[in-house]
Amino acid sequence: MSSPSSQKNTARTVRGVVFRSPGQEVTVTDVTLAPPGPGEVEVAVAAAGVCHSDLHVIRGEWDHPVPVVLGHEGSGVVTSVGEGVTSLEPGDHVVLSWVPSCGTCRFCVSGRPAACSLVAEVVAPGGVLYDGTSRLSIDGEPAHHYLGVSSFAERVVVPASGAIKVREDAPLDVIALVGCAIATGVGAVRNTAGVEPGATVAVIGCGGVGLSCVQGARLAKAGRIVAVDVVPEKLELARRLGATDAVDARDGDVVEALRALVPEGLDYVFDAIGKIETTEQSIAALGQGGAAVIVGLPPAGRTARFDPLALAEADQRILGSNYGSVDAARDIPALVDLVVSGDLDVESMISARRPLDEAGDALADLASGHALRQLLMMETEKEENRR
């Protein structure tokens, strides 16, 4: 086998999970991957996390150009770099970021790279990279990237800012979750909300992102952390990860249950689901000066109701949190450090490791509501993924 650097100018065939249109099953098929262009890198994927954002596309709840290679959470090893890339080299271990910030727009320059306008206006909606084109094709026809990543594939080409170099002693499969669930949940607590020691916190929804919010609140030394879900096993895990109380949403009115635990209302409520009812519950459960943080993403076009007078009189806030308001280059390596030190328990959040061929089953299990984060493990290029 030739070295990565000697292959960098050669298109290659990789296996990837392709979605073609609503109502159709995803398929694992051969995809042609062009070499990285200027400012881009190629990464051999070690593991990819299965997230609800992929389900939104499959269900037709979010509009996205097709065909698309799915996946936006993952980790791997750099195999080649394009012209002008000096921050990475073959052999580097990386976590993939689905906001590959440009570094030059007004949001990036002002210290808000998670709001990068190039990503929001070109990369994400167009299913392309910075230059408006794709490195993916199927049977000679262009295919689209998902959120600038497409991690449900053996290899990917991404902007260099979307491959965050991390320490090499961190297990590549485990830290795949740092690229989305962990960064989004912990970031929502730390960056978006700025939860203070002693604060009262509730987290509605204990999937991968919600459990990351719970851990973020624990790390922030919140005084009370209430986990809310309909699955008892998820509530039990939330307690192990730092929740002080649990509310089974099947047992009655969630707001009443939260008020019974914290009569004065909560300082922070994180909606980690993104359904309209959970957003409204998050606002209704707030106390004086509290903040509802909307982390989970609903289908496009949905609207929630709240009483603006009550919100104003109680000096409350509704905060949107995109990708945990992270600065990926700063926050992802720091989060990986917390994983290695044991301060962040990611292994407990992984409910299954599956081969790429089981992507359809993994997505179905996630849709059932009982799976946590599942990892799709790549079977090729093992010698590079383990370096």
Global outline: globular
Biggest pleated sheet: 7 strands, mixed
Share in β-strands: 25-35%
Poorly predicted spans: 1-8, 381-387
Helicity range? 25-40%
Summing up helix and strand content along with how strands pair, one would put the structural category as: alpha/beta
Give me the number of helical elements: 14
Tell how many strands the DSSP assignment holds. Answer: 18
Distance between the termini: 16 Å
Rg of Cα set: 20 Å
The pLDDT mean sits at: 94
Structure description:
The strands form three sheets. Strands 3, 5, 6, 9, 10, 17 and 18 form a seven-stranded mixed β-sheet that branches. Strands 13-12-11-14-15-16 form a six-stranded parallel β-sheet, with helices on both faces. The chain has a five-stranded mixed barrel with strand order 1-2-7-8-4. It is globular and about 65 Å long. 30% of the residues lie in helices and 26% in strands. It is built from 14 helices and 18 strands. Helix 6 (181-193) crosses helix 7. The chain has helices spanning 4-7, 52-58, 106-109, 117-126, 172-175, 181-193, 208-219, 232-241, 254-261, 276-284, 308-313, 328-341, 359-368, 382-385; strands at residues 12-19, 27-33, 40-50, 68-69, 74-81, 93-96, 136-138, 141-145, 155-159, 163-165, 200-204, 224-229, 245-248, 266-271, 286-294, 317-320, 350-355, 373-377. Strand 11, helix 7 and strand 12 (224-229) form a beta-alpha-beta unit. It starts with a helix and ends with a helix. The protein is α/β, with parallel strands linked by helices.
